[in-house]
Amino acid sequence: MAIQRTFSIIKPDATERNLTGAVNAVIEKAGLRIIGQRRIKMTREQAERFYDVHKERPFFGELVDFMTSGPVVVQVLEGENAVKAYRDVMGATNPTEAADGTIRKLFAKSIGENSVHGSDSEENAAIEIAQFFSLADIVG
Ligand code: GDP
């Protein structure tokens, strides 16, 4: 299996409840390494660019409001098949449908305030990592 990198965000609902360490513990237990990490407050411009693919969806405004409502932790994760491995440990978008032991089952508040983001493909992971990290800030 290939060693991959993926992009993660610990969202405002989780940082607000002081869950950064608890989320990171689940990530590391799943065999993923946190090789880049930074706590930031996203601007509207950053959030709108990041979620551009969803701009026609009815929840877009709500999503941008939420993602800019408090601090987030942006991360680069590395491991075997990291994109899928992280999607698996995140759980389904809607926490009521997420499997036991997943981050969203453990911590998410709702389909919108669902604690974490993870890239859905290796191609998108590279684009998303480049939006928030320079190479010098990623140490594998
Ligand atoms: P993900 O890949 O599992 O994060 O899910 P999507 O790519 O479908 O959606 C991106 C993000 O938009 C989700 O993680 C949620 O934060 C948000 N979102 C998705 N569906 C809804 C919805 O029906 N209502 C609201 N308020 N937010 C949503």
From TrEMBL:
**Which reaction(s) are listed as its catalytic activity?**
a 2'-deoxyribonucleoside 5'-diphosphate + ATP = a 2'-deoxyribonucleoside 5'-triphosphate + ADP; a ribonucleoside 5'-diphosphate + ATP = a ribonucleoside 5'-triphosphate + ADP
Q: Where in the cell is it found?
A: Cytoplasm
Q: Which UniProt keywords apply?
A: ATP-binding, Cytoplasm, Kinase, Magnesium, Metal-binding, Nucleotide metabolism, Nucleotide-binding, Phosphoprotein, Transferase
Enzyme Commission number(s) = 2.7.4.6
* Cross-referenced Pfam families: NDK
> Which residues does the record give as ATP binding sites?
11, 59, 87, 93, 104, 114
Main subcellular location:
cytoplasm
GO molecular function terms here?
A: kinase activity
**What is its cofactor?**
Mg(2+)
Task: Please give the function described in this protein's UniProt entry.
Answer: Major role in the synthesis of nucleoside triphosphates other than ATP. The ATP gamma phosphate is transferred to the NDP beta phosphate via a ping-pong mechanism, using a phosphorylated active-site intermediate.
Name the protein family. Belongs to the NDK family.
Q: How does it assemble?
A: Homotetramer.
- The identity of this protein, by name, is Nucleoside diphosphate kinase
